[in-house]
Fold each of these.
Amino acid sequence: MNVYEAVHSRRSVRNFLGRPVPAAVLTRVLSAALRAPSGGNLQPWEIYLLSGSRLEDLKSRVRRRIAAGDVGDPLPVRPYPAALPAIYAQRLAEMGERRYGAAGIAREDKDGRARIRARNWECFGAPAALFCYLGERMLPPQWMDAGIFLQSVMLLLRVEGLDSCAQIAWAEYHRTVREVVNPPASPTPRARSAVRRAAGAGTPLSGDREATPTLAEGVLDTSRRGVPVGQKLGAVVANSSTNTWL
Ligand SMILES: Cc1cc2nc3c(=O)[nH]c(=O)nc-3n(C[C@H](O)[C@H](O)[C@H](O)COP(=O)(O)O)c2cc1C
């Protein structure tokens, strides 16, 4: 598959077969995505891979919150500008109509829409999720870096015959994500490289572009948390810290 084919065939998939994917494939994808450019070569993305029991733990915590009527955490950023210019408001509305219409949910069916949205917090059935954080001090240019990185991941997944869905929806339960992912409050580069060396689930899998072997260690360490090496991982890309919304 060439880059044009990857770009054209990528689409947001919201129903995964759950077909297994070797951990080595994800390692290959993430290692290559680390080649993504970034302003000043900051490589500011902090990524965390959850799968197996840890992902199940996250999903069930959010499931419990939703069942208790909890509508989520205060959002760190607005999903869209307050007064969305008409052209964008129209695209957003059309997207919603297509999305819910495809599921046979009428516009006024609030419960139906909520049920469809809640599939977000099941990762649409995918058994692995990649969470991307940026340090609190990072600015919009670094958000752009993260987007470039994530698009690289999504295109590389296509080359591997896999699909994905970016998900800002996880930001709605970001406190619970934080409990499970357990990222450092505001990692410094030094702290980052320390945790990289210690890499386990809950520590970043990101690394310097020149240091991709660390990434492989991270993936292996993820497996030490209950996913046997070689056990297959699915692929959904969860992008919980940028500023776009479904
Ligand atoms: C940053 C970002 C966040 C997104 N968040 C969600 C989300 O939370 N849930 C979802 O179902 N789709 C989400 N999407 C997918 C968009 O709805 C989708 O990309 C858009 O409708 C275009 O469709 P396509 O990806 O199939 O080309 C997100 C996309 C991006 C880029």
Amino acid sequence: MSIKVYLTVTSVLIHSISATYFPPEVENHNISKLAYCQAEYPNPSSYKPMDDSTLLFVQAISRHGDRTPAYFAPKDTTIWDICPHKHYEYAYANTVPGVQGGVKIDTYTDDSDEASNMAGLYWKGNCFTGQLSRKGVNQMEAYGSQLRKVYVDKMNLLNKKLEKDTIRVRHTNVPRTLASAEGLMTGFYPSGTGGNTTIGFTSFPQEKETMYPNSLMCPRISQLGALMRTTPEYQSYFNNSYSDALRLNKILGYGSSVMANSTLGYRAFADVFWAIECHGKPKLCNEDTCITEDDIQLSLKNTLFELTYTRRLSPYADEYNKLTGGAFFSQLNTELAKQIDYDMHNQCAEKTNNGTVRMSIYAGHDETIVPMLAIFKTNNIEDYLVPYAGSIHIELWRNNTDKKYYIRALYNGNQISTLSDPTTNEPWCNLNKCDWNTYQKYLEQYIPKNIYQECKLVQ
Ligand SMILES: *[C@@H]1O[C@H](CO)[C@@H](O)[C@H](O)[C@H]1NC(C)=O
Ligand SMILES: *[C@@H]1O[C@H](CO)[C@@H](O)[C@H](O)[C@H]1NC(C)=O
Ligand SMILES: *[C@@H]1O[C@H](CO)[C@@H](O)[C@H](O)[C@H]1NC(C)=O
Ligand SMILES: *[C@@H]1O[C@H](CO)[C@@H](O)[C@H](O)[C@H]1NC(C)=O
Ligand SMILES: *[C@@H]1O[C@H](CO)[C@@H](O)[C@H](O)[C@H]1NC(C)=O
Ligand SMILES: *[C@@H]1O[C@H](CO)[C@@H](O)[C@H](O)[C@H]1NC(C)=O
């Protein structure tokens, strides 16, 4: 399906916006809502090792799987009955395979629809807002099993049986990312392959979280958001899309704070519509008007515009990307630097007494991945619509001949192509093989030097 998008990807626009072009239109961008519902998994048959090089370490950063809407729209009449009854075999891993013992975790949601447990006052069904669905759990397990095919079966980076301390897992302090990490690990080391060990999960409190835009800790992030909405470019988008927003909101019934002129974003509409579409549930109606297929496309298109504006086109985009993605990149790069340091001194990756750390798994959100893609300067704007179970893999390689270190970054198992700099006409790096020094040096400009200072409100 071909739709118009208010964007173009010419470098002229990306690096300097001219109001006379705005909003520019291009015809040949297809957004598939089905592509949004399900990310492409890493594919073991098309996965190619880097020539003449050894894979040392991988950072796998993922978005959670399919979920219920994260926003609560009072007039959403959908029956949200898609939530899991799932037990995680993984908790068996601290026993000898086949021997019962330890703790088996069984997650379930209450299905009874009785007034006495307030069922139906909020939503119909068995889910809470932003909950990982059964489909979402299955997506994460499928993603984990593809990871296994690539990094265990094909690359031998990790042993077929889980060895102690070879994998680190971090998730945000949100139920759906914890459940996603559990699903992922269940697919990665299925029942019987857990060895005689446990795996540690960690998460940071919100006060320290770097895996999503943390405006609680960094008020400048909200201030930048507000500044971006006041530009003439954004105002013209806003004015053009306002009457549709009012129409759609009649059906969703968001209150004044979501609909306020200073905050309105189509994301809040898309959030509900897409959850409905990804489950083939009936489109919402109110009295005689119903959401149409065109409305779904409009919500996709406008959400993509909002993301592209805030992450790329706006004059504040660089600072916004820095404050929302820089601190996480700092942690990722510290971890990579440590691996390199170990490797240089021992010709092997970081060793603990118990094993060699080979992979770090980060279970996060679209807002974990979007700042990274924006900082990487992906040239495909549709990348900003991060599908459920979407992933970035950052691989650390050592060249067997010259012993130099290279980074390869993949998005949903595919190459990431980066924009050319308008002055040099060259991309900042080829992310299919980027030497570590170039990678690290480029990212440094996005890492806040003094985050406490840079996060303060600017008067
Ligand atoms: C969009 O989809 C149409 C119909 O499937 C196809 O002909 C066209 O090549 C696609 N355009 C792009 C840019 O992929
Ligand atoms: C598993 O680990 C426990 C505790 O470290 C140890 O006592 C036991 O012998 C191990 N079992 C096997 C089969 O390695
Ligand atoms: C948007 O609409 C507001 C209120 O109607 C108006 O004041 C403003 O000039 C418009 N801005 C643009 C860029 O059209
Ligand atoms: C909100 O913005 C729209 C479009 O610019 C405008 O028509 C409307 O009057 C504004 N509403 C308020 C309450 O400012
Ligand atoms: C290795 O495993 C032992 C026993 O489980 C644990 O006490 C120790 O802290 C581990 N060492 C490291 C470096 O992780
Ligand atoms: C590895 O290093 C050798 C020697 O510098 C070079 O010829 C080769 O292209 C490098 N291979 C890769 C994949 O970088």
